Amino acid sequence: MSRIGRMPISVPKNVTVEIGKENFIKVKGPKGELSRSLSRDMSITQENGEIHIARPTEMRHHRALHGLTRSLLNNMVVGVTTGFSRVLEIQGVGYRAQLQGNNLQLQVGKSHDVVYEPPSKDMSFDVSRDGRTLTISGIDKEAVGQLAAVIRMERPPEPYKGKGIRYQGEFVRSKAGKSGKASK
Questions:
Q1: What is the CATH number of the domain that holds 96?
Q2: Theoretical Cys-Cys bridge with 155: which of 36, 108, 116, 178, CB 3.0 to 4.6 Å?
Q3: 106 with 113: CB under 8 angstroms?
Q4: Residue-range definition of the domain harbouring residue 69
Q5: What is the maximum alpha-carbon separation in the chain?
Q6: Predicted TM-score of the model (pTM)
């Protein structure tokens, strides 16, 4: 059995989980509402404030789906209760971020400013005072991670000077620059 898949998901008191036909799941909580269609092969049951997931067979495909289904459902429950956030650091001379209302404006060495709107009303941006640290928050873990990856790709960290946008705690190995032509 999958160690992750067989762990029950505890549902807090202020969260409601509706399991529809063909495993269409709706989760409502204090931060918002998420819905997702999960694999029809998995058996999802809710009892005594816990959700259990079972797989029909021991086929490789079902074993893979077992843990995935449990993780996706757990992320939905955690998202509507506490939410998720991803922190990005901006490094480089003249590189900074700032908020324009709800939108994020980045100045990362291009001829124009790059502006991002939050893709949903549940997501938000927060920028530190110096404009070097950016926090993306939301209830959908997948959407928060995807938006962070898209913003990071605007100017990925380069290995020579270390300039660019990186995840908090990300290590970027520095390379040595070219050495000049040696005199004879």
A1: 3.90.930.12
A2: 108
A3: yes
A4: 9-81
A5: 82
A6: 0.88
